[in-house]
Each structure stands twice: as structure tokens, then as C-alpha cells.
Design goal:
The protein is α+β, with helices and mostly antiparallel strands. The chain is 32% helix and 15% strand. It has twelve helices and twelve strands.
């Protein structure tokens, strides 16, 4: 059964590339602690004909939010943070402009009211951790924290990341290494790449009409000056910066292994979070709070009707701009990650769903 599943996924990928519906693809699936699918296809860099391999690194944008959330929950589990403590307890400067009561929970469920990027920022500022954290610390919330929620597309990472760094006395890169990569033996999961891996990073593209992003004089959660986002993540400076909400660069395998280690029993004896802590992390956000988001736990998206992750709240993870995805299904011990280099295509092929359907069919998971 499992050999057949590997073949089915590989055939799916090969067909989509041959039909020019995808350019470069990569996926990995863990099932009950075992790697059962590791597939890739297409080109990582069409300008010079470099093929995708299992070691190709893909920019996966907001998939880094799920990894960041796991770091936060590990620190909470050890007592270095707590969900309902004010962030200013560990980051005093953050109390400015009416934010003394903003808690870690507000940041995790996107209800802090700090979703807008600071005005006046450019690429130099975005790539400077200290500058962005200082700018966010000076900002005032758009609404009373906790009163509504809206996706904190980029600011999520600095708010939570700096809180984690202050609490643990580590840089974010050190936390990523100590909390995620080292326990799982990962070599290909980055939020800010080192120079030496640059040749392995896939080039992103979009197909179709060129979108227009005019300059504006008001704050946005994803500023027009960053658009289009495929060009944003093709920049060398952005790839090397630490933007935990937005510039994850990794292999599908390493992202899937992260989620496998959140399933019951973990992977190779490693459980990143005990079941009781994970249950708290997956408690749905207060349904009485107005929101523009789908079902959310604390930092993770939750499954629900029509979700590619599954229809249950025990399915959780995070997607990234352009269709990348990582998630776990706790009821079945399933972890899946998917990465792609073509972020927009007029054909509208939903490859993540095709992949998930293929995997669930092959494993006889019907719910």
C-alpha cells in the first residue's frame, strides 16, 4: 500500500509538471511516525534548467507561522512564557502606546490589533530584526486587543518572536535550532538562510497577467511595496532576513517532520509537545470575537468543513502564500507538507488538495 502511495503521488506530480500546470513541486508525508512519501518533480530554476531534488529549498512564506507557534508552545510548556501574560512582562518597551495589556494569546490568535506594518519601512528595515521590533513596540493597536481578530500577516512573527527571544535569552535563530531542528535532526528548515544554501533555493514565479500594486500613503498588513510576493521571496536580502511570519525557506520533508513530531508518539521518539499542551494550543478561538479568519487555535489554523487539512479540529497546521502547506491530523497520525515554486497560474490547479486527496485515499482515511 505505501509503495503504491509513493508512486501515486509521484505520478500526480509528474503529470502536473508535464501539463505545465506546475513548475517545481515537493511533498513529504509521515504516517504513524514513518516517512511514507517523499516526492518531487519539475524545475527549481527554469532559467538554467536546474531540476528539483529532495534537497531543494522552497520559500513557503507563512508556513513559518506554524513553526513559530510550536516554539512558543514549547517555551510555555517549560514555564518561560504563559498564554495570558502581557507580552510587556518580558518585553517592557512593548507596553508603549496602550499595549500594556496585550497578551501572548492575543498575538497567537491574531487579535492584538497590530496587523499593520509600520509606515516608512522599506526592505532595509524589514530585514533588520531590531529595527522592526522597535517599530512594532512603538505602535498603537488598531482596536482594543481581544475585541476582534484579523490576520497579522507579517507582524505576527516579530511580536511572538521577540517575546520568545526575551523570555529565553536567545536569538530567534538559536531558538529555531534548539527547539525544532536539533531535536528532530533537521538540516533544511530555515527562517533566514545562511549564504551557503542559496544555490539550493527554488526560484519563484507567477503566470498570467501582471498585477498592479500602486504606491499608497496608508498602512497595510502586506504593503504594496512588497508586492508581488514571488519577487519579494526571490530577493537575496529577504531570504537571509529573519521574518518568522513570512519568509520560511525549507524542504517539504523537514516541514512534514516538524508536524509528525506533534502527532501522538512523535517521530523517532521525539514529541515536540506533550498531548495536554497541544490540546490547549488547539482550543478554538472565542467564537464571539468578530474575525476575518477561518477556524484558529493558538497560532495554528484548524481543520473544518472544506479544509484541505481535514474536517476536524484535530487537524491543524498552516499554509503559505501561493499554496504551500504543512499540517498534522492527530486522529490518524498523519503529517503532510507541500511546497511549490509557481504561485499563481490561470488554470487554478489546487495541487495541495489533489495531493491531500491522493494521500488520504491511499491510506484509506475517509473523514
Amino acid at each position: 500500500m505505501l509503495a503504491s502511495l509513493q508512486n501515486d503521488v509521484q505520478n500526480l506530480f509528474d503529470r502536473l509538471v508535464a501539463e505545465d500546470k506546475e513548475r517545481g513541486l515537493q511533498a513529504a508525508v509521515y504516517f504513524q511516525g514513518e516517512l511514507v512519501v517523499h516526492a518531487w518533480a519539475g524545475l527549481a530554476d527554469p532559467t538554467c534548467g536546474v531540476a528539483v531534488t529532495g534537497e531543494t529549498l522552497f520559500p513557503v512564506f507563512s508556513c513559518g507561522k506554524g513553526v513559530t507557534a510550536t516554539i512558543i508552545h514549547r517555551l510555555v510548556e517549560r514555564g518561560l512564557l504563559s498564554y495570558d501574560q502581557p507580552i510587556a512582562d518580558v518585553w517592557p518597551e512593548f507596553a508603549a502606546a496602550g499595549k500594556a495589556g496585550v497578551t501572548l494569546r492575543h498575538a497567537l490568535n491574531h487579535s492584538a490589533g497590530l496587523q499593520l506594518m509600520p509606515m516608512g519601512a522599506g526592505y532595509a528595515e524589514l530585514c533588520d530584526w531590531s529595527v522592526m521590533c522597535a517599530a512594532i513596540a512603538a505602535m498603537a493597536p488598531v482596536w482594543k486587543p481581544g475585541s476582534q481578530s484579523e490576520y497579522h500577516a507579517i507582524t505576527f512573527g516579530w511580536i511572538l518572536g521577540e517575546a520568545a527571544c526575551r523570555a529565553a535569552g536567545r536569538t530567534f535563530e538559536q531558538l529555531l535550532q534548539e527547539e525544532i531542528r536539533a531535536p528532530l535532526g533537521l538540516r533544511n528548515l530555515f527562517i533566514g538562510i545562511p549564504d551557503e544554501v542559496e544555490p539550493r533555493v527554488a526560484a519563484l514565479e507567477e503566470v498570467g497577467a501582471v498585477e498592479n500594486f500602486p504606491a499608497v500613503d496608508f498602512p497595510q498588513s502586506v504593503p504594496n511595496w512588497l508586492q508581488p510576493l514571488y519577487q519579494f521571496m526571490n530577493r537575496a536580502d529577504v531570504r537571509r532576513a529573519c521574518v518568522p511570519a513570512s519568509n520560511g525557506i525549507m524542504t517539504a520533508h523537514d516541514l512534514a517532520r516538524h508536524y509528525a513530531a506533534l502527532c501522538p508518539g512523535g517521530v523517532d521518539g521525539v514529541e515536540l509537545l506533550p498531548p495536554a499542551r497541544l490540546a490547549l494550543a488547539l482550543e478554538p478561538a472565542d467564537s464571539s470575537v468578530p474575525t476575518s479568519l477561518g477556524p484558529m487555535g493558538l497560532g495554528y489554523g484548524l481543520g473544518g468543513e472544506g479544509s484541505v487539512m481535514g474536517g476536524r479540529k484535530t487537524c491543524f497546521g498552516h499554509g503559505g502564500h501561493g499554496g504551500s502547506l504543512g499540517f498534522a491530523d492527530l486522529d490518524h497520525g498523519l503529517a503532510l507538507a507541500f511546497a511549490r515554486s509557481r504561485l499563481r497560474d490561470p488554470a487554478g490547479t489546487d495541487t495541495a488538495r489533489l495531493l491531500a486527496d491522493c494521500v488520504r485515499g491511499g491510506l484509506h482515511i475517509n473523514d
